[in-house]
Amino acid sequence: MASISSAFVAYLLLKSIFDVSDIDVVERSKYDMSFKYFLDMAPEEAVIESSSLTKFRKLRLKDMNLLDMLINKTVVIAIEKGIIKSSSIIVDSTHTKARYNQKSPKEILMDMSKKLRKSVYEIDENMKEKFPSKTTTDILEDEIEYCQKLIDVIEREDSISQYPKVKEKLNLLKETLDDDIEHLQISEDEDAKIGHKTADSSFFGYKTHIAMSEERIITAATITTGEKNDGKQLETLISKSTEAGMNIENVIGDAAYSEKGNIEYANTHEIKLVAKLNPSVTQGYRKKEDEFEFKCSGSHSVTAPSSTLLTA
User: Fold this and answer.
1) Selection from 11, 14, 17, 21 nearest residue 171 by Cα
2) Phi and psi for 137 in degrees, rounded to 5?
3) Is 180 domain-assigned?
4) Burial grade of 221 (CB within 10 A; 0-12, 13-18, 19 or more)
5) Cβ(154)–Cβ(116) below 8 Å
6) Which of 133, 153, 188 is a domain's end point?
7) Of 129, 159, 188, which one is at a domain's C-terminal end?
8) What is the mean pLDDT of residues 203-227?
9) Dihedrals phi, psi of 157, to nearest 5 degrees
């Protein structure tokens, strides 16, 4: 099952990278040698059925343990082949934007239909006269109806619809209308939250927390909403890496991972935590108003958190 799932995931990675439908990612895999190479297929090897990929994407990926299963299998193979030799893991997180990036369902369909029309105009600009009138309302159903009419017009023009650049965008819009329309509703993406990578930058989506060996093999991963604290995921990443087969002696990360609870956890499990000390440990959780000012000789003054002087 693991190898089959890995193959499907590889197809879905290509689908995501090239922004094409299930039908087209499978079709390109028949003749595109770069796709075959990525999928670890011989040139003459047969590809999967696109309907199987669709079923896997819509049903199988609901299995929440799939990611752990794939990572664990990778780590096991890497250890068996002698690729992983270290006893250290590096932990960090990266932000992942929500799929539709806060666009409304109507805006998503408008964007897709616009790209489709543009590809058609590059071949025959006179098609403008045959296309239906664009919607003037904010009603999603009206945009869906417009997109369907647009698809019908283009499909009747065989000389246009068979151009690869038109066909791919046409299939993607059809796929969205056929089975993804329920996912367009941003209200259904309840887990996506506003997160902050820095003090003055934000994103809408999730955080992917990752642990990897010094050989850069991912040993564990967990996904949270965008506003979650990185340090709170350390125990989970260590636990998952251990379950995958890693013998962990050192954990390397930034200051987010060296909060008090993580230090205690590392000591209990005899793991060396290599990270800059978290300000919550050195200074405590002091508000600005809790700081105090003391005078030095002359006219200079120094402001510092009270805990800094208490620990001096």
Assistant:
1) 21
2) -110, 170
3) yes
4) buried
5) yes
6) 188
7) 188
8) 84
9) -100, 85
pLDDT at 289: 59
What pLDDT does 262 receive?
93
| pLDDT at residue 288 in the model | 58
Side-chain-side CA neighbours of 278 within 13 Å: the count stands at 18
Domains of the chain: total: 2
The residues with which 206 forms a beta bridge, in sequence order, are 96, 225
Say which amino acid occupies 139: I
> Across the chain, where does the E strand assignment appear?
88-97, 193-198, 201-213, 218-225, 250-252, 272-274, 292-295, 301-304
DSSP-derived secondary structure for 209-246: EEEEETTS-EEEEEEEETTS-GGGGHHHHHHHHHHTT-
Confidence of residue 261 (pLDDT cuts 50, 70, 90): very high
The pTM score is: 0.57
Q: Is 167 helix (H, G, I), strand (E, B) or coil?
A: helix
The Cα–Cα gap between 53 and 207 comes to 26
pLDDT digits (tens, 9 = 90+) for 29-77: 999 999 999 999 999 999 999 999 988 887 755 555 777 888 898 999 9
Domain span holding position 125: 105-188
Residue 162 lies in a domain: yes
Q: Are residues 119 and 177 in the same domain?
A: yes
Q: Is 89 a domain residue?
A: no
Q: Nearest CA to 163 among 122, 191, 125, 218? A: 122
Residues 120 and 59 in one domain: no
CB-CB neighbours of 128 under 10 Å: 10
| 263 within domain boundaries | no
Instruction: Give percent of the chain above pLDDT 90.
Output: 54
